[in-house]
Design a protein that fits this description.
Layout lengths: L1 H6 L3 H9 L25 E6 L5 H5 L3 E9 L5 H7 L3 E7 L4 E2 L2 H5 L7 H10 L13 E6 L1
Parallel strand pairs: 1-2
Antiparallel strand pairs: 2-5, 3-4, 3-5
């Protein structure tokens, strides 16, 4: 995405922000097709962020260490796809201002308005958005 690449071009400002209270924090942004491997060790990431990008988790979950996190939205059904992954557990959701990890809220995620659309997705893994009764801006999963 050209906008993301432009944003992450300002590395000094971003590094200062990310390091915040912990100078050892670091980040890397890859402006490339997420289906291609990156030059990183598997199981080395604490956090993988996938926003508006498709099924990033399918190909790149291997870089997230056990106990690490993946932050996604449901653009292109990426959050729902993560929810179907046996190696991931939904631990929290957010609408941008508040993070909610209550089991009551998490249990209500991914209840489709039309169950037929869920069945279609499971068969073909398409990127046509599935409508859910309650949606969130962000979904946080933890890798087992």
């Amino acid at each position: 995405d050209a906008k993301a690449a432009k944003f992450f071009k300002h590395t000094d400002d971003i590094q200062t922000f990310i390091q915040g209270k912990n100078p050892s924090n670091e980040y890397k942004f890859y402006a490339q097709d997420y289906n291609n491997d990156i030059d990183e060790k598997e199981n080395s990431f604490d956090l993988l962020i996938s926003l508006y990008a498709g099924f990033v988790s399918d190909h790149n979950l291997k870089y997230v260490q056990s106990g690490g996190y993946i932050l996604v939205n449901n653009s292109h059904n990426d959050a729902f796809n993560c929810n179907l992954n046996e190696n991931l557990t939904l631990i929290a959701v957010s609408n941008g201002t508040k993070i909610d990890s209550s089991q009551t809220v998490l249990d209500k995620c991914f209840i489709a308005k039309q169950s037929k659309k869920v069945d279609e997705f499971k068969k073909s893994k398409h990127m046509k958005t599935i409508g859910f009764k309650k949606g969130y801006q962000y979904y946080i999963f933890q890798k087992k």
